[in-house]
Amino acid sequence: MNVHRKTRIAAAVAALAAALPAVAAEEAATQPTELHRVIVTGSNIKRIDVETSDPVTIIRRSDIERSGASTVVDLLKSLPWTTESLSDKDSVNRFASGASSTSLRHMGAQSTLVLLNGRRLAPFALVDFKDYFTNLDALPLNAIERIEILKNGASAIYGSDAVAGVINVITREDYQGFEFGANTQKSLNSRSFGETGIHATAGVGNMQADGFNLTASLEHYHRERVMWRDVMDDAPKSWRERLPSAQDQLSIYSSPGNLSRFDRSDWHAVAGCDANSLSDGLCWYDRYKDMEVQPAADRTSLLVSFKAALTPDVTAFGEFIGTRTKTSYRLDRLTYGSADSAVVWVNSTTTELQAFHSFALPATHPLNDMGEDAVLAYRFADVNPQQNTRSQNYRLITGLRGNTNGYDWETALTFARSTTAQMRHGSEFSRNGFSRMIGGTTDLSDPASPVDPDFFNQPGGYRIGQQNSPEVLNALFPRLGSRGKLTQATVDGKISGQLGDLPAGPVSFATGYDLRHERSVITPTDNVSSGDIVGYVAGQTDGARTYGAVFGEIIVPVTQKLESQLAARVDKFPGFGAHLSPKVGLRFQPTKDLLLRATAESGFRAPNLTEAAPSTQVAFSGTTDPLRCPGAQAYANDLRAEADSLPASDPRRGELRATADQAVTNECSAAVAETIKHNPALKPEVSRGYSLGLLFEPLQDMSVSLDYWSLQRKNEIGLRSTSEVVGETGALPPGTSVNRAPLDNDPTFTSAQLQQQYGITAGSLIGVTRQFENTTRTRTDGIDIGAKTRFGTPVGSLELNLLGTWLNRFQRYSTATGGYGDNLAGHYGYSRWSANLSAALTTGAFVNGVKLTYRSSTKLQDDSSDAVWSTQGCADNFGLAASQCRVGSYVRTDYFVAYSGIRNVTLGAYVSNLFNRTTPFDRKAFYYAGEQTPAVEDVKGRTLRLALDYKFF
């Protein structure tokens, strides 16, 4: 990948490399080329030299082809600076499933601005709880000419969200001819994980000769579904030894299920269990059949760009991109257990709490052979639960650009819209449907309600272990979900040119405006809004705003070797005053081989429409009740001590222990229903960023770069923790409330005597209402490195490229301590070193490439407060030595080969994980995955991607 180009020929090489095959790059670089002024990400001023005061990485088309990436997400996540963000592969239970985002420097998707040809796209129509983001799945990979990544803030140039950096995706234009391509990818380890793609690009018209050009690109991508049962046996031996075996892979929640007494004795299968599922008298279900590794996906994108010369100095231009995406998730089949804990959720319309209790199978049920009410463990195996997320995204731009009296100008109108329907069925009960098809007269909200004698045997209702009719299943498991629509209309304009001349050179400037209107509406289905769907939560938003900005930029040559960039932007959003974002950049080139650069800038992120406009989010959070947990623990200790004092044969021993366990569960780790409200009084997040670096070119075709970066962000928009709100003894902040049940009929401390004995003065925690606040701050810094060289060898031209980043510090402010917390660099999820080293050898019509990807090791511990995964916690809880209480470092080797010896044809093959190396064992991830699945990359193993491109001239 292209970190830096030789300063004196930068624009010429960049322009040629983007358009010519890699095998011709060396020859093309020797041809005389007219130097043109271009816009570089991070500035509005055209210039010849692409090396500015900002550290910008350019990923050329040839780099993309050598990367082996099938999607834009795959390409970006392989870079050292990008960090974990939302992925459509594992977002099925997120508020914004079926989409993917990116993040720079661990600062989050909302602090990373993604542009397409220098302008914004409409964000994904559903928010990821509170975050709007650009859906990278809506960008076609094969239409991309290059990607420019600005690795520091740029709010002075681009406004809100450009806090951590900017990713500018630049597509092909001025294309002439036609080309077609196809690719396919599959795991060589499991023969699955298939991905296929086809694409075509066509262009007519030459701007110089014809005065116009029309370019269109069409792309389709498909990814197959993979289930764990189909690939579990392909896991490496080291993983299979850790996975559950035999019946530990199975579940007693099966069909037609299993029965027991309420003391958990006499477990046995319900009559009618298939012989292949019977073992040890129980009916088992293979849970891996329902567990999805990778969801299916289909994406189609059309990109059209047009420009025509109206006069010698004025050009009309237009651009349209439209994308349809569909991600299909296979969900786990729902289970029902008579002894399961109650499900509590929030009616998002009334914000009232709802409850769903499980009940026993009556003694009168024809399948109950126990002569008394029984515990039923059942799985609804006759349902095929799925979730489909369908999204449409388009952007239409039309405008004029030209040159008048030596000044370049441009103005444009942009219309953008994103719509998403996230719908599922077969995965959650309708409370009303359950009453009609199963529960009958039973009051599902009252655990003491008398059980209907026809429970699970209603006339015309659901039948255990049978294939029920679509009418019954649709009543029990209705279609549900959310729909979102986000629209934007923008008018912008700018003018640039020279203000005059100084002894050191011309003074260049740019100034312009940006006026935007946006509206976001997110609406759950009626059955979700009314609270009819058991345990399902969703957010809703209905907000709109109009805002605008003016900006200016000037480049002043202080001396022939020193250049300064001054930029400022004033943004005005409703709800708070105008915000100024300034920037200063310095570029000093003391010799032709050495460039020094530095920047200082102030950035900001305005509250989005979910955070500040009318919205409600509902969720669940596990928390400890500080007003009741200490008493519950003391009560549990006393109960256990009493149990220990009884004879082993006394049945009260089990009852006392069960009561003790339930007391701790209720008060120390309960799932609390939460309602989160918007806050119109929010301030914008603000940041300060600095960079200081150098670019050194000691030899022809060799460059080395080193850049220090620092970023501080405050007024971060978030939520006070549930435990902090619940434990507040003083007045709660506006918009915050804690809902507790009365002490009468308390489920844990059942008498006034117990309440007095254990100091209980507050009822059990039911729910919490919070609103978004400006809560905390973050600071981080590190060093980026880059090195690139190209030289001849006896067998061809060899190109080497190194990209890397070292995370020196990442800290979050703690309101509890009034200072910054631990440095998370080197802790779980925060590798200190991330780097890529690639080599490409061009020999005639062949290009062979190798890429090494490295990530340094991390601790398993989040920070010093994480006692579970501390060195001592690892030893006590998991039997791990100190050397094992971490995720090891990792190096992956990929290989690429391309052949262009057939006229107009390019053939390519890319082998990912060439040596089939397993990833370091992540004990923490394995634990929270229920210790039942290996790392996906290890099952995938070595992967082969084949590509063919044919060009018609």
Average pLDDT, rounded to a whole number, is 90
Overall form: globular
Number of domains: 2
Using the coordinates shown, work out and report the CATH topology of the largest domain: Maltoporin, Chain A
Which radius of gyration do the C-alpha atoms yield?
Answer: 31 Å
Strand elements, count: 48
Main β sheet profile: 22 strands, antiparallel, barrel
Which architecture of the largest domain would the CATH scheme give at its second level? Answer: Beta Barrel
Structural class: mainly beta
N-C termini distance: 28 Å
> What helical percentage do the residues reach?
10-25%
Show unreliable segments: 1-34
How many helical elements?
A: 17
Beta-strand fraction estimate: 35-45%
CATH class of the largest domain reads Mainly Beta
CATH homology-level superfamily of the largest domain: TonB-dependent receptor, beta-barrel domain
What descriptive keywords fit this protein?
22-stranded antiparallel beta barrel, mainly beta, Maltoporin, Chain A, globular, single chain, disordered N terminus, 953 residues, 5-stranded mixed β-sheet
Overview of this protein structure:
With 953 residues, the protein is mainly beta. It has two domains: 7-225 and 296-328 and 390-422 and 484-610 and 684-716 and 775-856 and 889-952, TonB-dependent receptor, beta-barrel domain (Maltoporin, Chain A), CATH 2.40.170.20; 625-668 and 720-771, no CATH class. It is 13% helix and 44% strand. The chain has a 22-stranded antiparallel β-barrel. A hairpin with a 2-residue loop joins strand 46 (890-902) and strand 47 (905-912). Helix 11 (629-645) runs antiparallel to helix 12 (652-668). The longest helix has 17 residues, at 629-645. The radius of gyration is 31 Å and the shape is globular. Residues 1-34 have low confidence and may be disordered.
